[in-house]
Design goal:
alpha/beta; OB fold (Dihydrolipoamide Acetyltransferase, E2P); inorganic pyrophosphatase (n-terminal core); Diaminopimelate Epimerase, Chain A, domain 1; 19 strands; 41% helix; hydrolase; exonuclease activity
Length: 754
């Protein structure tokens, strides 16, 4: 039979893929392995003195030691900023310097080195400031430092702007004159280069663990030297006696997983540990987290810090008490509580933002503003909106000083840097790249900015469509009913927007790891990237633990090495049940094998998919351990509902049955609904899915029709289900079938059938 051509997206499957899926899988593994190998760097590339500015930096720090100058380290509030501050402070102490540090408050200070920080350092007696993970955009602060006689050493990894600060030293691998052959280091890795230059063989191993974690946290490209740093850093983590890190890693059995199964839990690092490290900076101040790392570091490395001022403090009774187990547990509990608060705040703001975007369903971009939204999570909310609605999202709130601050995330076909440049007349400042940006404006500029941005989006779409017309929306390819009812805040928008790229992005980061694309004036090349993932096509029967373990030979996954997702064709949903308040469990079958899927995203949408629905699935694969046993974990990312009245579905299991067209149950939707209602009523109001399957078999109906009729009943509130059972909901009200979008679709189709 002839196949429909489904435009774009992960469900646009090559015709021969099912006959050759194994060859495709092996080819992918081979090509990705070659890519990783080709980006490996020579060992000499790690030499810190490849930075042309490094000798001048070392000379200035030696002078500070000789003069007994006080040095102030100026860090940042995200995970990379915390880790780089910890590393730099410790390295300078080991070098023999008197050091203190300062981290900005996200809300009162904002990102980057400010003139006020320079003035404070000067008044405190510091004559040298060293930045980490910031500073490349600190033009004004550098001018103040020069005027006050404070030397400024900038170590940063963000992309430089058109004007550079006049600093004593600029150490940034992205600078044209930097000399360092690998540009994609994290802020902590740049700080590590300074430590290597100062300490040579005395560099503590734990510094490599900090660099590895920061590389994952800041979503840096996982190629070249970064893979080398991660490998070495993970080796250090596996053997660390740092009490703070061990307690954090024990929260997701990092050590047990390696000891029992030989597996590195990179997902645990990326999605459980790193959100904890980001939480203090998102919700308040992060300075206490640096102190926690430093205290734990000194406990594990006392010999290195024996003669430093801070180590002398640590010998005091008060500090000694904080080193006890109870204090470590308290610090971990504080991180967990902050991250839980971040999740609650994010969810509340997302729901409010969702209601706002519904006011203009035809908009090409989403722009929402509320003065009371928490500034620390608007980037995550923007990511979630973009992920759901497949369109650019701009989320704004009022800053501490009365200005409006915004965060934006975008799809690959709408460049934010170009958009903000076009409307810069309305902005105080802005920064970012094509898929993530931050900006600020005055209250008076809000409405002119919004209108200018909407106008730009409209004009940009016209220019783009002239060369590359939009593909069909999901609604045009048979995704309807419960999946596109247009009313659910976790539903239809993910499927109904016409876009030139109908493929899932990496945008939804409800894990708090968003990469912080809000740093105005300087962005990491890896921040909040939206690089499309790779897709592997595989039958459900072949998706095994063994295949997953083969895949994890390519880990860690992330920027530059995206984790592939699996496209699984033509399965039937056997059950759909709630697991607590934040997840669903699906059981699906392809006729040869039943498997369990977990659903964590958009559960309000997926909860409404009826049993017996035929689906194409897009899955993330992973593993989990329970009672020491290693199991395959399948997590739903997206699904396409296969309608029995489409002319064909990719893969022969779902071809439309011509015989069904003659059935009165199909040709007259009310008859089919009456048939289903009678079976439910006669069974006492509850039917197992297996019984519905048997009834469908007796009538020679595909299960897709049963799912359609269930959809109608769900739309009008007549049916619910939990797990393997479908239940009637008693009601005294007269129900109108026409209120169901699915029913209207069925009626239109039947009318055309004649």
């Amino acid at each position: 039979m002839q196949n429909d051509t489904w435009a774009g997206g992960w469900y646009d499957m090559p015709e021969d893929v099912w006959d050759r899926w194994e060859a495709h899988f092996l080819s992918f593994m081979h090509e990705r392995s070659r890519l990783i190998e080709s980006t490996k760097t020579h060992e000499a590339q790690g030499d810190p003195f490849l930075f042309r500015a490094m000798p001048r930096l070392v000379e200035r720090l030696q002078l500070a030691r000789d003069r007994e100058e006080r040095v102030r380290v100026a860090g940042d509030y995200d995970a990379d900023g915390v880790l780089s501050t910890t590393l730099m402070v410790s390295a300078l102490e080991l070098f023999g310097l008197t050091v203190d540090y300062v981290l900005p408050d996200r809300f009162n200070d904002g990102y980057g080195l400010k003139p006020e920080v320079v003035h404070k350092a000067h008044s405190d007696g510091a004559r040298l400031i060293v930045t980490v993970d910031n500073g490349i955009a600190a033009v004004e602060a550098a001018e103040v430092a020069k005027r006050l006689g404070v030397d400024l050493i900038v170590t940063d990894h963000h992309l430089p702007g058109p004007r550079l600060p006049e600093a004593y030293v600029l150490l940034n691998p992205h600078l044209a004159e930097a000399g360092y052959p690998f540009p994609d280091l994290s802020g902590t890795s740049v700080a590590l280069k300074v430590a290597q230059a100062l300490l040579a063989e005395r560099v503590p191993d734990i510094f490599f663990a900090y660099a590895a974690l920061s590389t994952l946290a800041d979503v840096m490209p996982l190629r070249g030297e970064n893979r080398t740093l991660i490998k070495r850093g993970i080796d250090v983590l596996l053997k660390t006696d740092d009490p703070f890190l061990r307690k954090l890693l024990d929260r997701f059995s990092f050590f047990d997983t390696y000891e029992k199964h030989g597996l590195i839990d990179y997902d645990g690092l990326q999605f459980r540990l790193i959100p904890l490290l980001n939480a203090p900076g998102r919700m308040g101040r992060a300075g206490w987290l640096v102190e926690a790392f430093l205290i734990a570091l000194r406990q594990s490395l006392p010999d290195h810090l024996e003669h430093t001022e801070r180590h002398d403090k640590a010998k005091g009774l008060n500090e000694a008490a904080r080193l006890k187990k109870a204090w470590i547990e308290s610090a971990v509990a504080r991180l967990v509580a902050l991250n839980d608060e971040r999740k609650r705040v994010t969810e509340r703001i997302f729901q409010e933002a969702w209601q706002k975007v519904q006011a203009d369903p035809e908009a090409r971009i989403d722009i929402v503003y509320a003065p009371d939204w928490h500034e620390g999570v608007i980037g995550i909310v923007a990511s979630r909106l973009m992920d759901l609605r497949k369109r650019p999202a701009f989320v704004l709130t009022r800053g501490t000083h009365g200005e409006i601050k915004g965060s934006a995330r975008s799809t690959t076909d709408f460049p934010l840097d170009v958009a903000l440049e076009a409307v810069k007349a309305h902005l105080m400042h802005y920064g970012g790249h094509a898929q993530a940006a931050g900006f600020a404006l005055t209250e008076e500029a809000w409405m002119p900015f919004k209108q200018a941005l909407l106008t730009f989006a409209k004009q940009f779409a016209k220019r783009s469509s002239a060369d590359d017309p939009p593909l069909a929306s999901a609604a045009d390819v048979g995704v309807g009913g419960a999946l596109d009812n247009g009313s659910d805040p976790n539903g239809e928008a993910a499927l109904g927007y016409r876009s030139r790229t109908i493929q899932p992005m990496m945008g939804m980061r409800d894990d708090g790891r968003d990469g912080d694309g809000d740093a105005v004036g300087g962005m990491s090349a890896g921040d909040a990237s939206q690089e499309p993932r790779s897709y592997l096509y595989i039958p459900l029967s072949a998706l095994t633990l063994e295949q997953m373990l083969n895949l994890y030979e390519l880990a860690p996954f992330g920027e530059g090495n995206p984790k592939p997702r699996f496209v699984v064709p033509s399965v039937m949903l056997l059950s759909n049940r709630q697991l607590g308040g934040r997840a669903l469990e699906w059981r699906v079958t392809d006729g040869t094998r039943d498997v369990r899927l977990l659903v964590f995203k958009h559960i309000e949408m997926w909860r409404r998919v009826p049993p017996l629905s035929q689906l194409h699935l897009l899955l993330d694969v992973g593993w989990s351990t329970f009672r020491g046993k290693l199991d395959l974990t399948l997590i739903l990312q997206e699904a396409v509902r296969l309608r029995p009245y489409t002319s064909v579905i990719a893969h022969s299991l779902m071809l439309k049955d011509v015989q069904e067209e003659r059935s009165p149950l199909v040709r007259r939707p009310r008859e089919g609904l009456k048939w289903l209602y009678q079976h439910l009523y006669q069974s006492g109001g509850t039917l197992a899915v297996s019984q519905l399957l048997a009834r469908a078999h007796d009538e020679k109906l595909s299960t897709g029709w049963i799912a359609e009729w269930l959809d109608v009943f769900v739309d009008i509130g007549l049916v619910t289900w939990q797990g393997h059972e479908v239940r009637l909901c008693p009601t005294e009200e007269k129900l109108d079938l026409a209120e169901s979008r699915t029913y209207r679709t069925l009626a239109t189709w039947a009318e055309k059938l004649g």
